[in-house]
Amino acid sequence: MTDTSDKSDKSNWTGKAALAGAAIGSAALAAALLYASRRREQAKKPTAPPAHPEDAPETD
Fold first, then answer.
1. What DSSP assignment string belongs to the chain?
2. Predicted local confidence at residue 43, as pLDDT
3. CA nearest to 20, candidates 5, 12, 45
4. pTM
5. How far lies 5's CA from each of 12, 13, 24, in Å?
6. Angstrom distance (rounded) from CA 42 to CA 47
7. How far is CA 11 from each of CA 2, 17, 22, 31, 58, rounded to the nearest angstrom?
8. What is the C-alpha separation between 35 and 42, in angstroms, rounded?
9. What tens-digit pLDDT sequence spans the chain (60 residues)?
């Protein structure tokens, strides 16, 4: 009789572990998509043109 209770305890634990793993995986996927979309937005923004050599400060 203890075999059935051990099996149900184990399946209950593994079910919770699987649910936690799925939640962590979903959060990681969402974070990756947010990161990628933010990088894409930053890449689309125009950057300032490079400084002209005549405007560069003297370094000598």
1. -HHHHHHHHHHHHHHHHHHHHHHHHHHHHHHHHHHHHHHHHHHHSPPPPPPPGGGSPP--
2. 77
3. 12
4. 0.50
5. 10, 12, 29
6. 10
7. 14, 10, 16, 30, 73
8. 11
9. 445 555 666 678 888 999 999 999 999 999 999 999 888 887 777 677 665 677 667 776
Q: Pseudo-torsion of CA 33, 34, 36, 38, nearest 10°?
A: 160
Tokens matching residue 20: 């936690």
